[in-house]
Specification:
alpha+beta, Aminopeptidase, six-stranded mixed beta sheet, 11 helices, elongated
C-alpha cells in the first residue's frame, strides 16, 4: 500500500517516520566519511572532475541510471539565463543519477547540489588545511564543506535512509551534481536544458536550518580603464589608469547606494540592512613599478532585486560607465564594461505550495519547531528552476560558518537533522511502498 502525504506534511505513519529517522542515524558516520572524502577533492572551477568521479561512483553504487555530460558553452549561450563563459568547458561535467520506481505513481523530485567550490585563498590564513576535512568540536572543516558538499552528501544519504528503512519511493528522483554554480549558474541550467524537470526541487545549500524565501540576481562584469604611460619622474604628463579605476568604481558605488535606498519598494527586502552589494573581486593593472600604468581591469559583482531583469540591471550599469568621461581631476578617461559571468535574475519563492507544506511537516517532525524562512542577498541556483520551469524550489540546508572565507566549516548535527528532513520529504512527497524491513 502506498504511504503518501496529502500535502499537509503528515501523510506518513509515525512508525514509518521513526524507521526512516533511525536509518539516518545508523548510517550517519558513513555519511560523514563520504562528505570528508568529497571535501578532500579540491573541485575548483574547471577542476571538478575527480569530485564528479566520486559522485558518479556513489550514484552507480545506489543503482541509479547515470548521465554525465560536458557543459556546452555554445548551446548555453542561446539561453537568456546563461552566464558568460571565459574558460574552457573541456572536462567540466554535470552528473545526474536517476531513480525510477517500478511503477511511477508518486510525485517526482530533483535533489540538486553544486560540486564546484570557490578558491581557498591564502592557506596561511587558515588554521588548518582547506582540504584535510578535519572534524573539531562537531564541525567539519574545509573548503566546500558547507558550500555545499555536506548538502550533496545529504541528498544521497537521505535516499539511502528511506530504502534502508524498507521503503521504495513511488516517484522519479533525479540526483544532480552540477558545476558552475559559483560563477554562472550554467550547470543547473544545462541540466534543465537537457530535460531534467520534476514536481519539486530541493537544494540543501548552507541556509542555517531555514528556507530561502527570496534572493537577489547577480551580474558579473569587468571594467577596463585606459591610461597614458610615462616615467614616474614625469607623472604629471601621464595618466594613471589604476587611480582612474578607483574613481570609476566610486561612480558605480553611487548606483549601489541608490538601489539600496529603494529596498522598501521590494517585497522581502525592506528589512535587510544592505541587500544590494557591489563587490570589487579582482583588480589587475600596470606593467612596471616605475611606470605610470596604461591600463587597469577591475572585476565586479553587483546584485539585483527580484523583478529587475538582467537586461535592465546591465543597462543601468553601462549607463553609469558610459557617462564616465573624466576622472576626479578632470582628466579624460576611457572606461569600457563587459559581462564576465553571472547574468542571473533574482526570484521569490511564493508561499503556499504543496512542496513547502511537506517540508514544513518534515522540519517540524525533526526539529520540533516551525520552519522559518528568510531573504538572502546572495545568488542561488533555485532561480533556474523557478524562473525557467515554474518548479517550486526549496533551498534549505545546514548551519555553516565562513563559507567563501577562511576556516569554512559545517555543523554536523545540523547536517544530520537536515538529512532527516530531506529523507522524510522524499518519503512523503514521492510516496513510498513498503518492500522490506531493514535489519
Amino acid at each position: 500500500m502506498m504511504d503518501h502525504t496529502d500535502g499537509t506534511g503528515t501523510g506518513l505513519r509515525a512508525e514509518h517516520r521513526d524507521r526512516i529517522l533511525r536509518a539516518v542515524d545508523e548510517r550517519f558516520d558513513e555519511q560523514i566519511r563520504f562528505t570528508q572524502e568529497l571535501v578532500r577533492h579540491p573541485s575548483l572551477r574547471t577542476a571538478e572532475g575527480s569530485a564528479q568521479d566520486l559522485m558518479e561512483r556513489a550514484m552507480e553504487a545506489r543503482g541509479l541510471d547515470i548521465d554525465r555530460w560536458a557543459l556546452d558553452a555554445s548551446e548555453l549561450a542561446e539561453h537568456p539565463g546563461a552566464g558568460i563563459v571565459e574558460v574552457s568547458y573541456d572536462g567540466v561535467d554535470n552528473v545526474v543519477g536517476t531513480y525510477r520506481p517500478a511503477a511511477e505513481n508518486g510525485r517526482s523530485l530533483i535533489l540538486n547540489g553544486h560540486v564546484d567550490v570557490v578558491p581557498e585563498g591564502p592557506e596561511d590564513q587558515w588554521s588548518r588545511s582547506p582540504w584535510d576535512a578535519t572534524i573539531s568540536d562537531g564541525w567539519l572543516h574545509g573548503r566546500g564543506s558547507g558550500d555545499m558538499k555536506a548538502g550533496l552528501a545529504a541528498n544521497l544519504f537521505a535516499f539511502d535512509a528511506v530504502k534502508a528503512a524498507g521503503f521504495a519511493p513511488g516517484g522519479r528522483i533525479h540526483f544532480e551534481s552540477v558545476a558552475e554554480e559559483e560563477c554562472t549558474g550554467n550547470g543547473s541550467l544545462s541540466a534543465l536544458m537537457r530535460g531534467y524537470t520534476a514536481d519539486a526541487v530541493i537544494i540543501p545549500e548552507p541556509e542555517e536550518d531555514m528556507l530561502v524565501r527570496a534572493n537577489v540576481g547577480v551580474i558579473w562584469f569587468r571594467i577596463r580603464v585606459t591610461g597614458r604611460p610615462t616615467h614616474v619622474r614625469e607623472m604629471a604628463t601621464g595618466f594613471n589608469a589604476i587611480d582612474a579605476a578607483y574613481f570609476a568604481v566610486g561612480e558605480l558605488r553611487r548606483l549601489e547606494e541608490r538601489w539600496n535606498a529603494e529596498k522598501g519598494r521590494h517585497r522581502h527586502f525592506a528589512d535587510l540592512d544592505h541587500p544590494i552589494n557591489l563587490n570589487v573581486g579582482m583588480i589587475r593593472g600596470g606593467d612596471w613599478g616605475s611606470s605610470v600604468p596604461a591600463w587597469c581591469e577591475v572585476d565586479l559583482r553587483c546584485a539585483l532585486y527580484p523583478g529587475t531583469t538582467a537586461d535592465e540591471g546591465w543597462a543601468a550599469i553601462t549607463e553609469v560607465v558610459d557617462q564616465i568621461t573624466t576622472d576626479a581631476a578632470g582628466n579624460p578617461i576611457s572606461v569600457e564594461a563587459k559581462r564576465t559571468g553571472f547574468y542571473a535574475e533574482g526570484y521569490v519563492l511564493e508561499e503556499g505550495s504543496a512542496a513547502e507544506s511537506v517540508l514544513e511537516g518534515a522540519h517540524r517532525e525533526v526539529f520540533g519547531a516551525e520552519l522559518e524562512s528568510f531573504t538572502t542577498p546572495g545568488y542561488l541556483d533555485g532561480r533556474v528552476f523557478v524562473q525557467y520551469a515554474g518548479i517550486p524550489t526549496l533551498v534549505y540546508g545546514p548551519v555553516s560558518r565562513a563559507i567563501h572565507g577562511n576556516d569554512e566549516c559545517v555543523d554536523l548535527e545540523s547536517v544530520r537533522r537536515i538529512t532527516k528532513s530531506i529523507a522524510l520529504f522524499i518519503a512523503e512527497w514521492c510516496g513510498v511502498d513498503e518492500v522490506a524491513v531493514a535489519q
